[in-house]
Specification:
The complex is a heterodimer of chains A (378) and B (319). Chain A is of the alpha+beta class and 378 residues long. Chain A has nine helices and 21 strands. Classes of the chains: A alpha+beta (378), B mainly alpha (319).
Chain lengths: 378, 319
């Protein structure tokens, strides 16, 4: 078990800078998620931590010891790949044995035929078999040990890949989109299982995903990455409630947050689509955007105050427990989504005109430079 | 769903079936029939001779030598050309630059007509005016002789070494001495075949997922041979089945070099099956005998191919 520290990591491929100075401090036993759209450099960063790729500059330290010159196999990390990367010609048992055999058996103990004559090999093999059986039992794949990866379902392969990573008790787990090849239902199930596994092992997990739901549900902390930078690093809860950057707010949350163009006057008052907000901003700039999450809209059939936007419903989406109303604020063509309870939308049908208001304190403002702008405390 | 046995459907498949029978099956069948006769081209008729031709194949020493020659050639050329092809492919795959240059150069012998290249080799290996023997002979009496005499290795009598003896008694007749001829023909065969195997292996290597190498590295496969054993070799299984089959069949079919250089000699040491078929069936117009060898040849190739499929494919993973 170990903490991992990254200092000013950069990575260049020819002229493109994929990582622009990443600093990251991962605590021992933490579940940290790197989340971002594809191409943001999160997988590259993971591979640099693993040692499969070398950084252009910067330091990687495991347990305060620099591992810049230590090759991947000596860093004692385990990795679960998106494609699982199981050895297709080996059985599940052999797949899970491989990391143990390669580490614990000497050259001669692994040598074909001759290995049978090396003293002490038997007890080592027995220890390996016990470890594999134990891990297989934890992951409930004991009955699959004789099968080849080709005979397994996606979820089973995923477990075997996990098992191969777990079996040798590494100092940290690196996971590169391990759930993205599973179907939706299984993904949701495995999310919970991975989180439980992390809790029971107590080992550091570094988890890469493009799926914000995975990041929000599993991690202790998540780092939202974009264009080779970490935009925000915090707990999922705080990132969702308090994004410090427009791009973070845009990426995290489903359905996406709604952005309205905003004009700021000298006093910091915000006007968007003809509606002026009560609170004032702490800014000198003259324009930016207002972000309101779909669940932060309040629905009214009449304009109750000056903060209501007239809204025309163009599509009504039922999720059973919730409804999503798609439409646009009168005077704009921009698609806006609002969440509502089934009771609130009984009378709303397509074409209905209603009024939306941002729940008090829920609207967020971002400047033209994407930075979050705070409202003044009254 | 019910099956309709409609006469029209047979008409639709008829052209394909007829073509297949006439072009692919019939020649083999005709050869099989002729192998039981004493037919010669131009004769008005023939006599059924039963299994006489096959009995000769088993009984006569010429044909024993023929089988031995073919077997030797296959046993030498197949493993060596595959090993070299795989080695070259792995090396080319690992270099970052000049890979294409190496590929082209190693593939040159495959592109060149073997018959033409056989003539080049015949000249190079000519006992008196050949480049090879002249070069070797120029090393006699110099440090080359000391080096290749292996007198510097403990317990080696340099007078008994190949190079020193050859300096004394003359360098070998590569195509005239039966000790060397098969080896020389096999050498040309390897020289010609390994480039092709290399290209097949290069294609196979591109389909090995990179993530498997990463997984192997993470799992602790530090040495190159460990990664080879764990990832490369198993993943090349399907390629290897194909390469072994193709190389074996092509080695059984060796003809150009034998025909143009040795004509099966000296003393039948390079009398391979293809050349025997040509000599009996074409040169001596003994169609019956030629057909019998052809059938045996076919049976060999078929047997080997099926055996390979059975033995290897069971262990090979197709992703």
């Amino acid at each position: 078990m170990a903490g991992i520290t990254l200092k000013n990591i950069t990575k260049k491929f020819d002229d493109t800078e994929v990582l622009k100075g990443i600093d990251l401090d991962i605590a021992d036993g933490e579940f940290l998620t790197l989340v971002g759209a594809s191409g943001c450099g999160k997988s590259t960063l993971l591979r640099i931590i693993a040692g499969l790729e070398s950084q252009s500059s910067g330091d990687v330290a495991i347990d305060d010891t620099s591992v810049n010159s230590v090759r991947a196999s000596k860093r004692d990390l385990a990795m679960v790949f998106q494609s699982y990367a199981l050895y297709p010609h080996l059985s599940v048992q052999q797949n899970m044995e491989t990391p143990l055999r390669l580490r614990d058996l000497s050259f001669w103990e692994r040598f074909p035929l001759l290995s049978a004559f090396v003293p002490g090999r038997k007890s080592k093999i027995k220890a390996i078999n016990d470890l594999v059986a134990e891990t297989a039992a934890i992951l409930k794949i004991g009955h699959l040990l004789e099968r080849k990866p080709g005979q397994l379902s996606g979820g089973q392969r995923q477990r075997v890949a996990l098992g191969r990573a777990m079996v040798r008790r590494p100092v940290a787990f690196l996971m590169d989109e391990p759930l993205s090849n599973l179907d939706a239902a299984l993904r949701v199930h495995m999310r919970a299982e991975l989180a439980e596994l992390h809790r029971s092992l107590g080992v550091t997990f570094i988890y890469v995903t493009h799926d914000q739901a995975e990041a929000l549900t599993m991690s202790d902390r998540m780092a939202v990455m974009m264009d080779g930078e970490i935009l925000q690093l915090d707990t999922p809860d705080r990132i969702y409630k308090n994004p410090n950057d427009r791009r973070v707010a845009d990426f995290i949350g489903s359905p996406k947050i709604n952005f309205f163009p905003g004009e700021f006057d000298k006093a910091g008052r915000v006007t968007s689509y003809g509606v002026a907000l009560e609170r004032r901003l702490n800014t000198q700039s003259s324009n930016g955007v207002i972000g309101v999450r779909p669940e932060h809209f309040q629905l009214f059939s009449d304009a109750v105050d000056n903060e209501c936007w007239p809204f025309t419903v163009t599509h009504k989406e039922s999720l059973g427990s919730d409804f999503f109303l798609h439409g646009h604020i009168n005077g704009s063509q921009q698609r806006t989504v609002a969440r509502a309870t089934p009771e609130a939308v009984v009378d709303v049908s397509i074409g209905t005109e209603i009024f939306l208001r941002a729940a008090p304190g829920a609207a967020m403002a971002f400047g033209a430079d994407n930075r979050r702008i705070d409202f003044l405390e009254d | 769903m019910t099956t309709h046995h409609n006469a029209v459907s047979y008409w639709f498949v008829a052209p394909a079936v007829i073509l297949m029978v006439v072009i692919l099956v019939a020649p083999v069948f005709v050869a099989a029939v002729l192998s039981f006769t004493d037919y010669s081209l131009g004769n008005p008729g023939f006599n059924w001779v039963g299994v006489t031709n096959y009995a000769k194949l088993i009984g006569r020493s010429t044909y024993t030598k023929m089988l031995l020659a073919s077997a030797t050639y296959v046993i030498v050329v197949v493993p060596v050309s595959i090993g070299l092809g795989l080695g070259a492919a792995l090396l080319i795959n690992s270099v970052k630059r000049f890979g294409d240059v190496y590929k082209t150069i190693y593939f040159l012998p495959v592109m060149a007509a073997l018959l033409a290249m056989a003539i080049v080799w015949e000249f190079s290996l000519h006992p008196t005016i050949g480049l090879v023997n002249k070069t070797l002979a120029s090393g006699c009496g110099t440090w080359v002789q000391d080096l290749l005499g292996f007198g510097w290795v403990p317990w080696v009598d340099s007078d008994q070494s190949w190079f020193v003896k050859s300096c004394r008694d003359g360098f070998p007749l590569w195509f005239g001495d039966r000790t060397y001829t098969m080896g020389t023909i096999a050498f040309i065969g390897i020289w010609q075949a390994f480039g092709f195997n290399m290209v097949l292996y290069l294609a196979g290597l591109t389909s090995v997922p990179r993530e498997l190498y990463h997984a192997a590295e993470i799992d602790g496969a530090v040495a190159g041979w460990e990664r080879f054993r764990l990832v490369t070799w198993p993943m090349l299984g399907p390629t290897t089945v194909f390469v072994v089959t193709i190389t074996t069949i092509r080695s059984f079919q060796v003809f150009d070099t034998v025909e143009s250089i040795t004509q099966g000699g000296p003393s039948k040491s390079t009398y391979v099956m293809m050349y025997a078929i040509y000599e009996k069936g074409v040169k001596q117009n003994l169609i019956g005998m030629g057909s019998a060898i052809t059938i045996v040849f076919l049976a060999f190739v078929l047997f080997l191919t099926l055996a390979q499929r059975h033995l290897v494919e069971r262990k090979v993973h197709y992703a």
